[in-house]
Structures are given as structure tokens and as C-alpha cells.
Design goal:
Blueprint: E1 2-5, H1 14-23, E2 30-35, H2 40-50, E3 54-61, E4 66-72, H3 81-87, E5 96-98, H4 107-117, E6 123-128, H5 133-143, E7 147-154, E8 159-165, H6 174-180, H7 183-190, H8 203-210, H9 214-222, H10 239-272, H11 278-317, H12 330-353, H13 365-404
Parallel strand pairs: 1-2, 5-6
Antiparallel strand pairs: 2-4, 3-4, 6-8, 7-8
Helix pairs in contact: 5-12, 6-7, 6-13, 10-11, 10-13, 11-12, 11-13, 12-13
């Protein structure tokens, strides 16, 4: 059996040389790898790139020399074959993509390739050495809200995330259910079901994720007790009217409340931050939220809302001339949905940090008032996002497609 002494190779050539030597093997052949440290990273790289076509047998396991017999057990694997073979196995044994072993510029393209290869309802996992949350937003922006992102492990050394392509044929989404009857949103709130940012998941999928009995939730949805006002039947409103309502009801609310909230959170953090250090983190999160919302509202007011109004006017007038120079509404709305996700994540963190905005026993009046104001803002933003994600945006996209067909 031939041997390959790895320390004698230039660092940049080590793994490429080993992989080439493996590729040159015929089925059933092997070579002996000799190294001055445990070559386990190579094992994971070969698993990711070659799949289940080799055997890895340690002959000597340090402390000064490591020897591994690497044997080819099958023919060449085409790119993606290992993933497809793995996906045919039970969903409890998902393919795991070790992102740390992929060249930096190829990390996200490789993950996207695996995601695109999934069928509806299928999933894979990624393993990384830091939180891959930026990938989440990129995936949301480029593919839309058609996937579920579930943390299996969250640091401090390793992050493991299951990415699942949603089964779009699995019934109405929770967002669609809430949009048709706002009373049912109260049932979702009761069970902690996010029908705003996470509104494109089916009820069955959400219940599975949260460990809820779907039949119990469905029974309550069939008989919602919350009274509904015909004045707030948003589904019947014209899109331009709804866009103006969102601006007047939610954007102006934010602009009016922001100076009060900034003053309160600064004052309370200065006076109570030493005894309640969570306030300092809350102050930081609030700053992130403001930065996110300021940019988001500007985009809506300058781009998205005028675009939607132009669509409505085009339909009323029958003249599409004004739309000929306009691109599709799809990309702007995807950006809005990514913004909503980012704001929703910050709100979730603030809610957890404050125990659902519950002031501590020693809280002064300003402290209590701050938490009340933050809770009001949280509720207003969730209603705002619901109206856009589940009613305004889907209807506007439908109208845009209809006018351009």
C-alpha cells in the first residue's frame, strides 16, 4: 500500500493532493496517510465532497504521528450525489453540511445549491463555527419565505441549523388564516404562534415545531370568541387605502412615540443599569430596532407604497403606461419581508430579556412606564407586519402579476 507523508507538502497543497490521490484510486484500493496531527478535518471534507464512498481507518492515533488508511469503496460520486443519497434516508438522519470545510467564497453558493435541490418537505443541516444568521436573511431575500430555520445547537463552539423547504401544499398558512379572520389571530397569540414574520408556515407545520396538538388549535380556530368589527375587515379594503392606513396608523404612531421611548430608556438605563444589567442590553437592542425601522419605513414610504398606489391607479384607469418603466414589485417586497424578519428577531430578544415586558419588583414609575411603552410598540409592530406580510403585499404582488400578464 502506498503512503503519503503530508507534513512534507506545502500547506496550500495538502488537501488538494490528498483528494487527488483518493480520486486516482480504483474501487477497493487504498493508501496510507501519515500526518503530524489528527487529520479529522479532512475526514469531514471528504464526507461533504465524496459522500459514502470511502472507509477511514485509523492505524496510529498520535500523540506524535497519526496514520490513517483511506480506502475507496465505490465509484466516483457526482456533485450532489451524496446529498441526494442521504435525503432518501429517513428524515431523522439528515445530511449535514460542514460549512467550515468549504472555501469562504463558496460557502453560501454551496448551501443555496443544497437548498435548491430539496423537494418540498425535505431538509438538511448545516454545521458552522459561528451563528449563520446572515445566511438566513440572504436565503429569505433571494428565495423568499419558503423555508423553516431551526437551531439544533447554538454555540458556543458549534452552531447546527436544520433548513427545511416548506411543504406549500400542506394547507393554508397561518398568515392567510389570520388575514381572512383577524379574530383567529387571538388564538394564535394564545399559543405563541407567529402569524406575522413567520406567517408563511402551515398550521400543521407550526404546531409540529412548537409541540402543539393541531386538532385542539383547529377546534379553537373554528369558534373564535373575539368579536370582529366590520370597520377593520382589512381584506375588503382597497390597497391604496390600506397603504395609507398603515402609514397613518402605524408609521405615525412610531414617529410620535420614538422621542418618548428614547428619553425613557436612556433615563431608566442610567439610573437602574447597575442593579439591572439587562437594561444595558435592552438599550442596545432598542438602538438596533430604531436603526432597522428608520431605514425600513423610509423604503416603504418612498418606494413600496407609491409603487402599490401606481398599480391601483393603473387598474382603475386601464392605462399601464406608468408601469412600463417600473420593474416588478417582487424584489422590493422581498426586501421588506427581510426587514420584518430582522425587526421581529430583535423584538423577540427584547421580549425574552424583559420577561414579556414585566418590570421587576423594585421598578420605579419610569421603569414601569418604559416597559408598558415597549410592549405597546411590540404589539403595534406585529399588527403592522401582519397587515403588510399577509394582506397588503400578497394582494399587491397578485395585482402586479395580473397587470403585466
Amino acid at each position: 500500500m502506498e503512503s503519503l507523508f503530508v507534513p512534507s507538502l506545502q500547506p496550500a497543497l495538502k488537501h488538494p493532493t490528498i483528494l487527488k490521490k483518493f480520486d486516482d484510486l480504483k474501487s477497493g484500493e487504498a493508501f496510507l496517510l501519515i500526518n503530524d496531527h489528527d487529520p479529522i478535518p479532512l475526514y469531514y471534507e471528504m464526507k461533504a465532497e465524496k459522500g459514502e464512498i470511502f472507509e477511514w481507518k485509523k492505524v496510529e492515533d498520535g500523540p506524535e504521528v497519526w496514520k490513517v488508511e483511506i480506502k475507496k469503496t465505490a465509484g466516483e460520486t457526482k456533485p450532489g450525489q451524496a446529498v441526494n443519497e442521504k435525503k432518501e434516508e429517513a428524515q431523522t438522519d439528515l445530511f449535514v453540511l460542514n460549512v467550515t470545510l468549504i472555501e469562504p467564497r463558496l460557502k453560501h453558493p454551496t448551501i443555496f445549491k443544497h437548498f435548491d435541490a430539496l423537494k418540498e418537505g425535505e431538509a438538511f443541516e448545516i454545521l458552522n463555527d459561528h451563528d449563520p444568521k446572515p445566511l438566513y436573511y440572504q436565503l429569505l431575500g433571494e428565495r423568499g419565505n419558503i423555508f423553516t430555520w431551526s437551531y439544533i445547537e447554538q454555540g458556543p463552539q458549534w452552531w447546527r441549523v436544520q433548513i427545511k423547504k416548506n411543504d406549500l401544499q400542506n394547507g393554508e398558512t397561518v398568515g392567510e388564516i389570520a388575514a381572512k379572520d383577524i379574530r383567529k389571530a387571538e388564538v394564535f397569540k394564545k399559543y405563541g404562534i407567529d402569524f406575522c414574520c413567520g406567517g408563511k408556515k402551515s398550521l400543521k407545520q407550526v404546531c409540529e415545531e412548537k409541540g402543539l396538538d393541531v386538532e385542539i388549535v383547529e377546534a379553537e380556530l373554528e369558534n373564535p370568541t373575539q368579536p370582529v368589527s366590520s370597520a377593520n375587515d382589512y381584506n375588503r379594503w382597497q390597497l391604496d387605502f390600506l397603504a395609507d392606513y398603515i402609514y397613518n396608523q402605524h408609521h405615525l404612531y412610531y414617529y410620535n412615540e420614538l422621542p418618548v421611548l428614547k428619553g425613557l430608556i436612556t433615563k431608566v438605563t442610567q439610573h437602574h443599569g447597575d442593579n439591572h444589567p439587562e437594561l444595558k442590553y435592552m438599550y442596545s437592542l432598542f438602538g438596533q430596532l430604531v436603526q432597522e425601522l428608520d431605514t425600513h419605513f423610509l423604503r416603504e414610504e418612498k418606494v413600496v407604497f407609491p409603487f402599490i398606489k401606481a398599480l391601483v391607479q393603473a387598474k382603475r384607469s386601464g392605462s399601464l403606461e406608468a408601469l412600463n418603466s417600473q420593474p416588478s414589485l417582487t424584489d422590493p417586497i422581498r426586501i421588506m419581508e427581510v426587514d420584518h424578519e430582522a425587526a421581529g428577531d430583535i423584538l423577540d430578544e427584547m421580549q425574552k430579556l424583559s420577561n414579556n415586558y414585566t418590570p421587576p419588583a423594585d421598578a420605579c414609575n419610569s421603569y414601569q412606564f418604559l416597559y408598558k411603552k415597549l410592549k405597546d410598540l411590540d404589539e403595534d409592530l406585529h399588527q403592522h407586519i401582519h397587515l403588510e406580510n399577509n394582506i397588503l403585499f400578497p394582494k399587491a404582488l397578485k395585482l402586479d402579476k395580473e397587470l403585466r400578464s
